[in-house]
Amino acid sequence: MSPRPGPRNLLTDVPGLTVGHATDERVGTGVTVLRCAHPFVAAVDVRGGGPGVRETETLAPENLVPGVHAIVLTGGSVFGLAAADAVTARLSVQGTGLQLRPGSKHIPIVPAAVLHDLMNPGDKDWGEAPPYRALGVQALDAAAEQFALGAVGAGRGAQAGTAKGGIGSASLDLGDGIVVGALAAVNSIGSTLMPDGETFWAWPFERDDEFGGHRPGAVMPDLDPLADLGRLMPGAATTLAVVACNAALTKAEAKRVAIMAQDGMARAIRPIHTPFDGDLVFSLASGAVPLGERLPREVDVARIGTVAADCLARAIARGVFEAR
Questions:
Q1: 186 FRET partner, CA 20 to 30 A, in 126, 197, 237, 317?
Q2: Left, alpha or beta for 254 (phi > 0: left; psi -120 to 50: alpha)?
Q3: Which domain holds residue 66?
Q4: Residues 232, 264: Cα–Cα separation, whole Å
Q5: What is the CATH classification number for the domain harbouring 129?
């Protein structure tokens, strides 16, 4: 069996993951929550110059916590981090999280990352009551295997260069039991589109016309990739991404997959990882499929990382395509 997109062509083709959105149309923002059915091994790779994060150091391979219970992607810049507080409290009440001793309070591990959407149209005059706590709870409660793409959740207020940004996702079943998926909230300074305004930089990786099927009709001219973008402001753009697989990765291997998956951003957005961006990739692994049985373990990890980069490039293009 040759690799093909999974049945939903979404991150949730990786068993054990659900995704929920909450969108505030009045404010022009939102939250996206990924919930894990059990603790997933996790890592993160940060490449942008202006990240806004929570609990990312917990994921370092040398640190103790073995897995995560959810991940929060949110608009609102630093104010959006309140969504992760709400998700953490909600999960604890539901009995999800680490217990340091029997009968003690559950401690969910919920890393989060924010994108800056405070300058888009919408009422940001929220005083001391930003909407993100409530949005975090709504997004968690909405988590399901099927979820919307485009200008929803964390992608509601996103912008991709001069085009509308949004939430995108894609998956690939390798045919040997391993499934890889990606999700992106695209809010980039760089463009996902070639100079013709129709063809995505990620076009070589497209499956089944999932983002329009456009192909470049001629050699692209040289261009200044930052010309006329008008968005060169610290913290004003970020692409947040999650890649996941059902393999039994260690934290160090999950980190390598996150590093490799960053190439998917470079294939889909030009320019990327600027001083203004907060770009990062979370990497999750469910542990269901053992590695190293047919091929050397390192080869399996390399295959997963390669496919994760391809899925992420497709997810980024799908997010912008669906938002348009």
A1: 126
A2: alpha
A3: 11-323
A4: 22
A5: 3.60.70.12
In a domain, 3, yes or no: no
The full length of the chain comes to: 324
Residue 1 domain-assigned (yes or no): no
Rounded CA-CA distance 170/316 in Å is 9
Collapsed DSSP state (helix, strand, coil) of residue 3? coil
Q: Taking every pair of C-alpha atoms in the chain, what is the biggest distance, in angstroms?
A: 66
Backbone angles phi, psi at 317, to 5 degrees: -65, -40
Number of domains in the chain: 1
Distance CA 149, CA 288 (A): 27
Which amino acid is present at 285? Answer: A
CA distances from 240 to 16, 31, 223 (A): 21, 12, 26
Query: How far, in Å, are 18, 27, 33, 88, 170 from residue 106 at the CA level?
Result: 20, 33, 19, 10, 32
Cα 117 from Cα 185, distance rounded (Å)? 12
Average pLDDT over residues 269-283: 90
- Structural contact between residues 159 and 311, judged by C-beta atoms closer than 8 angstroms: no
CA-to-CA distance for 27 and 135, rounded, in angstroms? 11
197 CB burial (10 A radius; 0-12, 13-18, 19+): exposed
- Across the strands, what pairs with 43? 283
Are 135 and 126 in contact by the 8 Å Cβ rule? The answer is: no
134-175 pLDDT tens trace: 999 999 999 999 999 999 999 999 999 889 999 999 999 999
Rounded to whole angstroms, how far apart are CA atoms 69 and 207?
Answer: 31
- Answer whether residue 249 shows pLDDT above 50: yes
The β-bridge partners of 112 are 54, 72
Give residue-wise pLDDT tens across range 298-315. Answer: 999 999 999 999 999 999
Both tokens of 49, joined, read 């110059």
Tokens, residue 280:
């990062």
Give 79's contacts (C-beta < 8 A, 6+ positions apart): 126, 130, 132
